[in-house]
Write a structure and sequence with these properties.
561 residues, alpha/beta, 26% helix
Length: 561
């Protein structure tokens, strides 16, 4: 231990500014529709408070077309103006109205993902009953719905004072979530309830939403169908029309300068070519953009079979589909569970997290093929990510492994220059699927990726998420410096955060400071280097403004030689 002290003594009190490889505008996003869409106002408020305390910048929220639409089970469209928000049952908007007021009150951004399921009167020719609400959605009707949403959340719309009761709607996927008490130092549950009452009682214009994404996972049969018809891609053609309509609707309602994301693709797919089998993301995107495997615009019959123009003139295609080229960024869900985030996919058409350079190269070559190359490249937004855990899922990862993988994923996203947001899918685990026997694989077929269990138990990731740490190399040489990457997510954006890299021997309980570091990145990222002479554990001890320390998870370092 004396040799360790000699190594670190000179550095122990030095303040070292950290450099950043990634852009300084990368956001932390979070999604939990069971709480934010289906929850009571108090549950919405409490969930937002927890997200804010964890350091989240923005919540992704699905605006379910079917939840807002009138007579969603009818196959005949009711007589109403789908582009007018006042033409919908006003109670159907309440959950979203309350949410936007709560988010504004608490200083959290929102990403409104306008998506399926769709009302029955806007779908047709379902290949199977279980995908009827995502089958061949009418792009014109979807555009009207997006226009209604856009009008309502311009920042100038005042809802009627009297709200009609909501129409019949599907039950919540998680109707009675039990939330953990808020972390120390944050607002109490009573404050969350008070905020909820205030949001419900508020009058005047609704806050503006200025961040949008179009549809969810259009390369999955559970969200858009049919995926394939007669062996040819079908969902890209459907999605292209939906994007065209949504883009026009947002532009017509004053959102032309907002962030608008296209894609929302999931990372993997199937070799099968059925109406409901998932399509590999790069197969989907090639057909969406009407390019061949060499990323040249399709022509002739090869174009026509995937719904593209036979004479695919670049300028005409760009003019016909402006959203595909003027989009703010490409949204993607780079899931890789149960595999580690650093494992690359063998399939060249998959895009898990480690395959991000493949996606970046792909989309920028496509844009260039149409003469629409972006200076600096098109931004990539990761809008869903997570890992299943055991407990509760028998096939999930341990809590410690989930925490480690999420920290590593954050580090990888930070390294990828094109990535503008990372995401955590779920605060609280989903309920099991009660349609199947307890303990069966399908019983746990829902998402168990939360930081909290359904009963409120805090997983290891609940504590590691606000203060991630990652060591790219954990087998090091004695006295040779190695990289420590860390983040203070729960600090105030723009404020410098100070912390100490600490070390303890394998059999010691007392940590010692190796180096004091201060962030320069506005979102709290840093990297620094330290050295040790014996195996042990390394952690970050972040200095809190009111005194005390917040610790990262410990990482074991093995010294060789």
């Amino acid at each position: 231990m004396l040799r360790l002290v000699a190594v670190v003594a000179l550095a122990a009190l030095a303040v070292v500014p950290a450099s950043a490889w990634a852009d300084d505008d990368q956001e932390s996003t979070f999604q939990d529709d069971a709480l934010l869409v289906y929850g009571t106002p108090a549950e919405q408020s409490n969930a937002l408070d927890i997200m804010k305390a964890l350091g989240v910048d923005r919540a992704r929220v699905t605006v379910y077309w079917r939840l807002v639409a009138p007579d969603p089970d009818s196959t005949t469209k009711p007589k109403f103006d789908g582009a007018d928000p006042n033409a919908y049952p006003s109670g159907n908007w309440d959950r979203y109205d309350t949410l936007v007021r709560l988010a504004a009150l608490k200083g959290l951004g929102l990403n409104f993902n306008v998506s399926a399921p769709a009302p029955a009167w806007a779908t047709s020719n379902a290949p199977r009953p279980d995908v009827a609400d995502v089958a061949n959605p009418d792009p014109g009707e979807f555009g009207k719905f997006v226009q209604a949403v856009g009008v309502r959340y311009t920042g100038a719309f005042t809802p009627p004072s009297a709200s009609s009761p909501p129409s019949d709607q599907p039950p919540s996927p998680n109707p009675t979530p039990v939330l953990s008490p808020l972390p120390p130092g944050t607002a109490s549950a009573a404050r969350a309830r008070a905020d909820a009452h205030a949001a419900q009682a508020a009058s005047g214009p609704l806050p503006r939403v200025g961040y949008w994404s179009i549809w969810n996972e259009p390369n999955q049969g559970g969200w858009l169908s049919p995926q394939w018809q007669s062996g040819q891609p079908s969902s890209p053609r459907l999605y292209r029309s939906l994007v065209d309509s949504a883009w026009s609707a947002l532009g017509a309602t004053g959102h032309q300068s907002d962030v608008v994301l296209v894609g929302e693709t999931v990372a993997k797919g199937s070799n099968a070519k059925t109406a409901t089998s998932g399509m590999k993301p790069l197969v989907f995107l090639r057909a969406l953009y009407c390019v061949d495997r060499s990323l040249h615009p399709l022509q002739g019959s090869a174009a026509e079979v995937v719904g593209c123009p036979a004479q695919n003139n670049a300028s005409d295609f760009v003019a016909a589909h402006p959203a595909l080229f003027a989009l703010s960024g490409l949204a993607h869900h780079p899931y890789n569970f149960p595999l580690p985030p650093n494992l690359k996919s063998r399939d060249p058409d998959f895009v898990a997290l480690a395959d991000t350079p493949r996606l970046v190269k792909f989309i920028n070559r496509v844009l260039a093929a149409y003469g629409q190359a972006r200076r600096g490249g098109l931004p990539i937004f990761f809008t869903e990510y997570g890992y299943q855990t055991k407990p509760p899922d028998p096939l999930g990862l341990s809590w410690a492994t989930q925490a480690s993988y999420l920290n590593e994923a954050e580090y990888m996203e930070w390294r990828f220059q094109a990535v503008k947001s990372g995401s955590q899918f779920l605060l609280v685990d989903d309920k099991p699927n009660s349609n199947f026997p307890p303990g069966s694989i399908k019983y746990w077929g829902t998402f168990q990726t939360g930081l909290l269990e359904l009963d409120g138990s805090r997983k290891a990731s609940f504590f590691s998420y606000p203060v991630p740490i990652w060591l790219p190399r954990t087998h090091v040489r004695a006295g040779k410096r190695f990289l420590v990457w860390a983040m203070r997510r729960d600090g105030t954006n723009g404020d410098q955060q100070t912390g100490s890299v600490q070390y303890a021997g394998l059999h010691g309980r007392r940590y010692r400071n190796l180096k004091t570091v201060t962030t320069t990145d506005p979102h709290g990222y840093l990297e620094t280097r330290v050295a040790v002479r014996r195996s042990g554990t390394v952690r970050m001890a972040w200095h809190n403004a009111g005194g005390g320390l917040t610790y990262s998870r410990p990482v074991t370092v093995t010294v060789r030689g």
